[in-house]
Amino acid sequence: MAVNTSAEAPLPVGEVSRLIGGWIDRLGAVWVEGQITQLSRRPGAGVVFLTLRDPSYDISVGVTCYRQVFDAVADVVSEGARVVVHCKPEWYAPRGQLSLRAAEIRPVGVGELLARLEQLKKSLAREGLFAPERKKPLPFLPQLIGLVCGRASAAERDVLENARHRWPAVRFEVRNVAVQGVHAVPQVVQAVKELDALEEVDVIVVARGGGSVEDLLPFSDEQLVRAVAACRTPVVSAIGHEPDSPLLDLVADLRASTPTDAAKKVVPDVGEEYERVRMLRDRARRCVGALLEREERGLAHALARPSIQDPHRMIDARAEEVSMLLDRGRRALRHQLDRADSELTHTHARVVALSPAATLKRGYAVLQREDGHAVRAPDEVEAGEVLRARVSAGEFTVRVDH
């Protein structure tokens, strides 16, 4: 329950310490997991002092136990070991200090560690942190590479030397961190975040040499996995040797089997690229040469055609054909005109021969009444009727004398 206090009615320090001790006593015994960072076994002392640390959150708490409790696991437990402790929280009121009184200590075996890692792996996989579609492609030629590794380590040397051997102009932004132990996780996480915040860093490589399962535990830590998953910069995992596979390998955008392999995958080889450029240039030259040869053959084939060699040949042939047709048309037209002229002459002669004028020229005359009708029979006229007589040279009038 909350304690009612005020500036006028404060609690003494001793009372506050007593209340805290009461609250902690009500917690009871608990099982706690952590990593031993300090171990103090004084000769002849009946109590052993430990410092238990949570590497994921950089929190430590002191642990005390009787010598016989620690002696039960003294052969398998040392500084750096992960243990599970059954203990009861205690509050030392005079100093205001929290500690744990251990009743049992159990070392965490490799099998148990692997089982927990497998559970964490399945949990993170369900969240989609290992999904292939989340992987970001690496740049072809990074201008600045971020490297997270141990100080003066073989992994750092392998990455730097191999990368510069492949591409001498490559630049690195190196962050030296602890790669095992209680400080590894927070330092690696901080280094990854710092490099990810730099706009000029194109890719981040997290490298470490091989080691035992316990040594590689920091690279399977959930906090580190989530930090890498949140990076905007592509991350390459180069942890351990070929058989080693921490969870960082699964969340990273690319897994390299070794630090040397990471350098080969991140940086192209200048010699190989030069050879590839030469091959592409030769292939382009061959393609262009083949294209020119094909076009030259096509042009030569086109030039060999009669129509190209003698372009007027077809026109001359058609001109002769047109001339022949023109002559034929003229002859045909002349023949038609001659025949039509002959027919017209014959027709004209027949018309002239059959015309009334020709009849009149032979001495005949045509008698016409006043209305213009020709007289064909005597009974068509009456006595005394005046008729008009038309002869070849003209006409005159006559009177009928019946």
From TrEMBL:
EC id: 3.1.11.6
Alphabetic keyword roster: Cytoplasm, Exonuclease, Hydrolase, Nuclease
Subcellular location field: Cytoplasm
GO molecular function: exodeoxyribonuclease VII activity
Major localization listed first in the record, in broad terms: cytoplasm
Domain of life of the source: Bacteria
Recorded catalytic activity of this chain's protein: Exonucleolytic cleavage in either 5'- to 3'- or 3'- to 5'-direction to yield nucleoside 5'-phosphates
OB-fold nucleic acid binding domain boundaries: 12-106
Any Pfam family matching the protein: Exonuc_VII_L
Residues annotated as domain Exonuclease VII large subunit C-terminal: 129-350
Keyword Transferase: no
InterPro entries in the cross-refs: Exonuc_VII_L, Exonuc_VII_lsu_C, OB-fold_nuc-bd_dom
Description of how the protein assembles with itself and partners: Heterooligomer composed of large and small subunits.
Record-linked PANTHER family: EXODEOXYRIBONUCLEASE 7 LARGE SUBUNIT
Similarity field: Belongs to the XseA family.
Role summary: Bidirectionally degrades single-stranded DNA into large acid-insoluble oligonucleotides, which are then degraded further into small acid-soluble oligonucleotides.
Protein name (Swiss-Prot/TrEMBL): Exodeoxyribonuclease 7 large subunit
Organism in which the protein naturally occurs: Streptomyces thermocarboxydus
